[in-house]
């Protein structure tokens, strides 16, 4: 039961991130994204994955790994597009 | 040890949300925020809180509750500012 709740929670919070990522990729507009905050966020998400491994909880590991992937792509976009204008 | 990792993770991912919220409140620009996605996100975060209660894990409960609060404020801003222009 916990696994169903956790997996559903992970899928919903993961799905909610995707449109924002697609928008950034499509519009190549990254002026509003703070590189520092992305760094803080990716560090926090990495600790969540570590926490998930310590507790052996797959919903936490998978959803935070997905969030790290999304934010690494965002960080790459910021690096690539930041000075295009 | 798990609690230290989880609490640090929660603090970092929570801190990373605040500048975006302050920016929206300050600039009153919510055109880029999807109400549907906020709904999906808040639903997902609520399930995480439920999951945290089932597992008795305070870092999960507290950090996702904070995220719900941030996103409810965002939802309020979207409702309030969406049609100002």
Automatic annotation (TrEMBL), chains A, B:
One of its GO terms (molecular function) is sugar transmembrane transporter activity. Gene3D superfamilies: 1.20.1280.290. Keywords: Membrane, Transmembrane, Transmembrane helix. InterPro entries: SemiSWEET, SWEET_rpt. One of its GO terms (cellular component) is membrane. The keyword Transmembrane helix applies. The keyword Membrane applies. The chain crosses the membrane at residues 33-53, 59-79. It holds the Pfam family MtN3_slv. This is MtN3 and saliva related transmembrane protein. It comes from Moheibacter sediminis.
């Amino acid at each position: 039961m916990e696994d169903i709740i956790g997996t559903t929670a992970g899928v919903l919070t993961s799905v909610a991130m995707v449109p924002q990522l697609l928008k950034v990729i499509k519009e190549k507009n990254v002026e509003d994204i703070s590189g520092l905050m992305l760094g803080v966020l990716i560090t926090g998400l990495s600790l969540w994955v570590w926490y998930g491994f310590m507790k052996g909880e797959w919903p936490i590991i998978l959803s935070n790994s997905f969030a790290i992937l999304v934010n690494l792509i965002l960080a790459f976009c910021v690096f690539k597009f930041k000075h295009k204008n």
